[in-house]
Amino acid sequence: xxxxxxxxxxxxxxxxxxxxxxxxxxxxxxxxxxxxxxxxxxxxxxxxxxxxxxxxxxxxxxxxxxxxxxxxxxxxxxxxxxxxxxxxxxxxxxxxxxxxxxxxxxxxxxxxxxxxx
Length: 117
What we know:
membrane
């Protein structure tokens, strides 16, 4: 199974967009943790936002390419709705709740890969 996973990911035109989304999201989580314990600067907040928008752009490209080459499932749309609604709303709550909700989002991204294989 493990040897079949990487050729499947690299040959798929849709799943290749989930990998940068995971990378951007991991970087964004680490930057958010750094900002939680250090002084927030406007530059860091701007980079935090750019990384979040990078995740959204990757997910939009995934949905578009998946619709062209196949069909989007309900789970694909639910993960995208989770990222555009719950994560921005959670910024208004406590920092630890926001971190927990974003970590749930980080576990939802590999589920997109698993459901496509």
